[in-house]
Design goal:
By secondary structure, the chain is of the alpha/beta class. The chain has helices spanning 16-24, 76-88, 108-120, 132-141, 153-174, 182-196, 203-212, 244-249, 284-293, 311-321, 389-402; strands at residues 3-8, 29-32, 41-45, 48-52, 65-68, 73-74, 97-100, 104-105, 200-201, 217-220, 258-266, 269-271, 305-307, 309-310, 325-329, 339-348, 351-353, 365-372, 405-410, 418-420. A ten-stranded mixed sheet has the order 9-7-5-2-10-1-11-15-19-20, sandwiched between helices. Strands 14, 16, 17 and 18 form a four-stranded mixed sheet that branches. Strands 3-4 form a two-stranded antiparallel ribbon. The longest helix has 22 residues, at 153-174. It is globular and about 65 Å long. The two termini are 24 Å apart. Bound molecules: inosinic acid.
């Protein structure tokens, strides 16, 4: 024990970075366990906005060690950019950032393939075009290049030559696109290897040794439960497991190391990209949530689709992940509504159900409960007691119906507006 996990409990963009920043204070090591530069984690410190795609946002806390786990797919261009940015702000990464030798590398080939596939397919997913799917496919096909492979000249040469040949064939013959000159790809890898050579380690060994020595570890997920490749709304999902299984696999820790699992949950819900979304509000309400909540993708800038809180989805997230505690974010965005709706159940084929049927989600109708809203601006509230009665009732209803203990409320963008719930 000694490890807590922060998992997105919806379709991503739940405000994980801000909560991870909050938990980081009481943690020694922060580990990112899956996804890649498709994620964009935004933290605001003293009014200054920081967006991270790969390096755990905990790096902003002095003295904390950050780890990029084996479950992550790493784009060298993005990682080097983040490293340079942090170093330019006076943050020294020596001894503070480690990268798993088993994490896979995303090359321009993967990004070109992602883009070409997205244009080619009739049923678009709306991927971030960051090469995520193709990199995880290569991992499963056992042709991917891992961080550690860069340091073995023979493996590097054999693996990269094969992948470049294969991807170029696809790009040219299937998608009618320009191939990549092999020397360009080799040069990217060689440059990257030189920059990260002191950071690449066996991270499971490092983490288990740290836990044995009494250190506290935080596992940080990207995306969210309903984008999980196994439990989400396939094929409109990402190519990894943001859920608890992915947290263990992508870090090398085991179930007995886990003390608490936080489900990070927005007080309403959003989704980016295509796919079913039962509680989506396409009119005025959706527009109001988008504008007030700043619901535009941190990675792609795309407008997020917005809708009402979905209880069947959260219940499923609790069961799949074993969520012990909920951190509810962006409650302030709901201020000013006369009535707030919550999907208490779904109707599927004429029957009412209370779970999340991921494969039939496109056929469900939400069954709503309505609650009175509050008019006050609550962004300055820093305790549960100071919230208007209607806001208290709203969050207590979610707590009761989801079956998850509400532990934390976050009420605005800044670090200061996060408080524990008694
Ligand atoms: P991919 O992960 O780029 O392959 O995209 C697959 C789906 O996941 C698309 O619908 C994306 O919009 C969505 N997605 C990927 N990363 C995030 C994220 O960090 N937040 C929200 N949605 C995401």
């Amino acid at each position: 024990m000694g490890c807590i996990v922060a998992i997105g409990a919806q379709w991503g963009d739940e405000g994980k970075a801000k909560m991870i920043d909050f938990f980081s204070k009481d943690t020694d090591i922060i580990v990112r366990y899956q996804g890649g530069a498709n994620a964009g984690h935004t933290v605001v410190v003293d009014g200054v906005k920081h967006v991270f795609h790969l390096i755990p946002s905990g790096i902003l806390h002095e003295g904390k060690v950050c780890v990029i786990g084996n479950g992550v797919v790493i784009d060298p261009e993005v990682l080097l950019e983040e490293m340079e940015l942090l170093e330019s702000k006076g943050i020294n990464l020596k001894g503070r950032l480690y990268i798993s030798d088993a994490a896979h590398i995303i090359l321009p080939l993967h990004k070109a393939f992602d883009e070409a596939m997205e244009e080619f397919r009739s049923n678009k997913i709306g991927t971030t075009r960051r090469g995520i799917g193709p990199a995880y496919s290569d991992k499963c096909l056992r042709i991917g290049l891992r961080m550690g492979d860069m340091f073995d000249k023979d493996i590097l040469h054999e693996r990269l030559t094969f992948d470049i040949t294969l991807k170029n064939l696809y790009l040219e013959k299937v998608f009618s696109r320009n191939p990549f000159p092999p020397e360009k790809i080799f040069a990217i890898v060689e440059h990257f290897r030189g920059k990260v050579k002191d950071m690449v380690i066996n991270t499971p060994h490092y983490l288990h040794t740290a836990l044995d020595a009494g250190k506290k570890v935080l596992l940080e997920g990207a995306q969210g439960f309903a984008l999980d490749i196994d439990h989400g709304t396939y094929p409109f999902v990402t190519s990894s497991n943001p859920t608890i299984g992915g947290a263990l696999l992508g870090s090398g820790l085991n179930a007995f190391d886990i003390e608490k699992i936080y489900g990070i949950t927005k007080a309403y819900i959003t989704r980016v990209g295509e796919g079913p979304f039962p509680t989506e509000e396409k009119g005025e309400i959706g527009e109001m949530l988008r504008t007030r909540g700043g619901e535009f993708g941190a990675t792609t800038g795309r407008p997020r689709r917005c809708g009402w809180f979905d209880l069947p989805l959260i219940r499923q997230a609790r069961r799949i992940n074993g969520i012990t505690d909920m951190a509810l974010t962006k409650l302030d965005v709901l201020s000013g509504l006369q009535t707030i709706k919550i999907a208490a159940a779904y109707r599927l084929d004429g029957k009412q159900i209370d779970y999340f049927p991921s494969a039939q989600l496109h056929r469900v109708e939400p069954v709503y409960t309505e609650m009175p809203g509050w008019q006050e601006d609550i962004s300055a509230c820093t305790s549960f007691a100071s919230l208007p009665k209607q806001a208290q009732n709203y969050v207590r209803y979610i707590e009761k119906e989801s079956g998850i203990k509400l532990s934390i409320i976050s009420n605005g963008a800044d670090r200061k507006s996060t408080f524990s719930v008694p």
